[in-house]
Amino acid sequence: MSFITYENRANPHVTIHKESCNQLRKHGGKHVNNQGKYENHLTYKDALQYANSTGLPVKDCSFCNAAN
Ligand SMILES: [Zn+2]
Known about the structure:
The protein is of the alpha+beta class. It has one domain. Helix content is 24%, strand content 31%. It has two helices and four strands; from the N terminus they run E-E-H-E-H-E. The site of zinc ion has 6 residues, from loops.
């Protein structure tokens, strides 16, 4: 299981997802105006560390519950 961070600077936040999250599938890993950025991480800890390093507010996805 790996994790994916979705970074949005237009609506500033970073969301942490499990790789299998349906919310990610919905977006297909691409964003219309290119304001979203996806990064893969091997562990939740890595994802969280990356998310914190962006300086944006960090949220766990409420659909896939990445932290659990
Ligand atoms: Zn999710």
